[in-house]
Specification:
- By secondary structure, this protein is mostly beta strands.
- Helix content is 11%, strand content 43%.
- The protein has a 5-stranded antiparallel sheet with strand order 4-3-2-1-5, with no helix packed on it.
- It starts with a helix and ends in a 27-residue tail after the last strand.
């Protein structure tokens, strides 16, 4: 019964998240538990893929720190995700932009969508 309530609350929370896709720069506020303390850590990067269906839907965010690329996979319906903010909408022609892994510097930039 508990798992069902967690899934339902996470599903209801997902409806509050903005629409985003591959190429968008987003900030994910993620809850981290350290002992008895709980804090929120922001992870900002480019979405390189959205994957899955239903409650097993995930998305991968890539950021570059000190010239080293770091990727993190987040479950979309996780109760540990506090909020998701879209910083920039990217203009890409693919659903999965793994070619970004090979690029560095100015080549790794993504054009911004104009509204």
């Amino acid at each position: 019964m508990d798992l069902l309530k967690v899934a339902e609350s996470a599903f209801a929370k997902e409806l509050d998240f903005p629409e985003f896709g591959a190429g968008d720069t987003i900030t994910v506020s993620y809850k981290i538990k350290e002992g008895e303390k709980e804090r929120i850590q922001d992870y900002r990067g480019i979405v390189i893929q959205k994957k899955g269906d239903g409650t097993s839907k995930t998305f991968t965010v890539r950021k570059s720190t000190g010239g080293i690329g770091i990727e993190r996979i987040f479950p979309l319906y996780s109760p540990l995700i506090d909020k998701i903010a879209v910083n920039k909408k990217g203009k890409v022609r693919r659903a999965r932009i793994f070619y970004l892994r090979k690029l560095t510097g100015k080549k790794a930039r993504i054009k911004e969508k104009r509204f």
